[in-house]
Amino acid sequence: MAESPESTQVRTEPKRSRRMRALIVVPATVVLSLAGTVAAASAATDASSGSPPPANGYSVWCVSVTGAKACFESYGDIVWVKDTKANGASAAGTIQGPGWARQCINDNGADSGWLKCNFDVPEYDDGLLWAVNNPFVGAEASTKINTGNII
To answer: How many whole angstroms separate alpha carbon 40 and alpha carbon 34?
Structure first.
């Protein structure tokens, strides 16, 4: 017995709907997963704080770029970020090592002073400290760091 066009159409529609749902659900799941990762890193952000200790090249490092300055202290895994240009863009300090990265974003404006973020990172890793004005699209600079003092 031959099937009518309506019955064939009814059977193919659920397959198409499942494909469309997969095309929507899978990317949305990926985006939400990534958003959770970023939120976890940003959750370490504290309130505005005093200035970082002076850079010494073995336990405290600082780097600057037009619009942002960032410092990292290995004892305590602390990142400080300062927005140095009133341009409406935020400033970020990022520490990055083999297989990990943490980001501290100061979106309080140039008049807000230093923002301090306290992270937990692997000890004795070589890495980079980045200062970024207008994260993801703006000016950036980096310097080498180490996450622990080797005695």
So the answer is: 10
Which has the closest alpha carbon to 125: 93, 149, 143, 108? 149
Its pTM stands at 0.69
126-133: strand order across its sheet: 100-106, 91-97, 126-133, 140-146
What does CATH list as the number for 45-146? 2.60.40
How confident is the model over 96-132, as pLDDT tens digits? 999 999 999 999 999 999 999 999 999 999 999 999 9
Q: Which sequence spans correspond to the domains of the chain? A: 1-43, 45-146
Task: Tell me the pLDDT tens digit for each residue of 58-102.
Answer: 999 999 999 999 999 999 999 999 999 999 999 999 999 999 999
Tracing tokens 């469309």 back to the chain, one arrives at: 20
* Run of H or E including 65: strand 60-65
The Cα 123–Cα 148 span in angstroms is 5
